[in-house]
Amino acid sequence: MTDDETDEQDEREAQFWTATGELQRAVMRLFQDSGIEPYLVVLALARVTGEVGAGAALAGEQDPEELLDELAEVVRRAGREFREMVQAEAMPTVGNA
Predict the structure, then answer these.
(1) pTM here?
(2) pLDDT tens for each residue of 36-55
(3) If we measure between CA atoms, which residue out of 92, 97, 94, 53 comes closest to residue 74?
C-alpha cells in the first residue's frame, strides 16, 4: 500500500467515525427528547438505512440486494459486539466478586 493509499484509507476511517458519532448523537436525542418508544426509533433507523443503502447501490450501479445483505451483516456484527461489550463491563472483575 502506498503512502497516498494509506492516507486515503486513514481519511475514510476518520470520516466513518465522525459520521458514526454524529448519527449516535442524533439517535440519542430522539431517545431522550422525542417521547418516541426506543424500539420504534430503532425500526425507523433500520428502514432509513435500508432505503439509503438501496439508493446508494442503485446510484453506484451495484446490485441493491448485495449491499442490503452486507448491511444486514454489519448490523448483526455491531449488535453482537455491543452486547458482548456491555456484558463484559457488567461482569465483576476477578477478586471483586
Answers:
(1) 0.70
(2) 998 999 999 999 999 999 99
(3) 53
